[in-house]
Design goal:
The chain is built from eleven helices and twelve strands. The protein has 317 residues and is α/β, with parallel strands linked by helices. α5 packs parallel to α6 and α9 packs parallel to α10. It is globular, with a radius of gyration of 21 Å. Bound molecules: iron/sulfur cluster.
Length: 317
């Protein structure tokens, strides 16, 4: 009760825009929904379609079955590859099991795969700046395992070995923090002056825009809540970007995750959401803050977004 009373100082909510679903996530969810409609349940999905507990729970209720690997899928059953992409080895494992597949990989992740193949075919050592164990990096590493090397941080950048320092290129996981990548790239460029860059930025528009928006609201707020699940890379980066402005920031999977101690004495709360977090969950968080006494809810738009991706042909109606 004392914690609740202390948190009732909240007066103002500032919503970051853009926030929540990006075009790649909307497309991936729609792929599963359409697959369920067109082919009927169950539809198998390799890995979480997007990294969000609410999305996965909702699609599970409607007949999607999430598996870790394609060998858990019954022979011949309809299978969707998640938004984070898959390696060629996963595609061939699915073909071996005669699985009809629909690829929900975000086109911007597919772009990074193509770049990895092109650089590797050119004879480069490809330095992939990303996080170990993330499905996106696993998929890209799998494009040319003998040529692509993972660089997770500045320490890795200082140590990584390449076959020929004149034939080195780099790629970036789409959901990293822009500033972190700049630090790693500064080290790589100093070590490998001929380092080749991808033709366009790998960190995607949605990541960049959400980071910019959260940094701007964090500057003007006493605390920031980022809606997203713990395994969502881009949501965790939003927390870090907000913290870098000096404002405390917290990741919440929903309104129930708000710790009232975070809000003690806080008057203005910034709210953002990772690209995989549903808008409805953001609404719940805002409603909870209103329940604590917030009187105004204002949106701060850093960038307008109008990106849309075409659906895969198997589910285009
Ligand atoms: Fe695609 Fe970027 Fe969204 Fe990932 S965060 S699904 S790369 S648009």
């Amino acid at each position: 009760m004392r914690e609740w009373a202390a948190a009732t100082t909240v007066r103002r909510v500032v919503l970051a825009a853009p926030r929540s679903f990006c075009a790649g996530v909307e497309r991936a969810i729609l792929v599963v929904e359409r697959a369920l409609e067109q082919y009927g349940p169950p539809v198998y999905v390799r890995k979480q379609i997007v990294h969000n507990t609410h999305v996965v729970a909702d699609l599970s209720r409607r007949g999607a079955i999430f598996v870790d690997e394609v060998d858990e899928v019954p022979e011949g059953a309809m299978t969707v590859f998640s938004a984070h992409g898959v390696s060629p080895a996963v595609r061939s494992a699915a073909a071996d099991r005669h699985l009809p597949t629909i690829d929900a990989t975000c086109p911007l992740v597919t772009k990074v795969h193509s770049e990895a193949r092109r650089f590797a075919e050119h004879g480069d050592t490809v330095l992939l700046i990303g996080h170990a164990g993330h499905e996106e990096t696993d998929g890209v590493l799998g494009e040319a395992p003998e040529r692509v090397r993972l660089v997770q941080d500045v320490g890795d950048a200082e140590r990584v070995r390449v076959d020929d320092p004149r034939r080195v290129s780099y790629l970036v996981q789409t959901t990293l923090a822009v500033d972190d990548v700049a630090d790693v790239l500064a080290v790589l460029r100093a070590r490998f002056p001929d380092l080749a860059a991808p033709p366009s930025d790998d960190i995607c528009y949605a990541t960049t825009n959400r980071q910019r928006a959260v940094a701007e609201i964090a500057d003007a707020c006493d605390a920031v809540l980022v809606v997203g699940s713990v395994n969502s890379s881009n949501s965790k980066r939003l927390v870090e970007v907000a913290e870098r402005t000096g404002t405390p920031a917290y990741l919440v999977d929903g309104a129930g995750g708000i710790d009232l101690r975070w809000l003690a004495g806080v008057r203005s709360v910034g709210v953002s959401a990772g690209a995989s977090a549903p808008p409805a969950v953001v609404d719940e968080v805002v409603a909870a803050l209103s329940g604590l006494g917030a009187r105004t809810v204002r949106e701060h738009t850093a960038v307008q977004e109008d990106v849309r991706f075409m659906l895969p042909k198997e589910v285009r109606q």
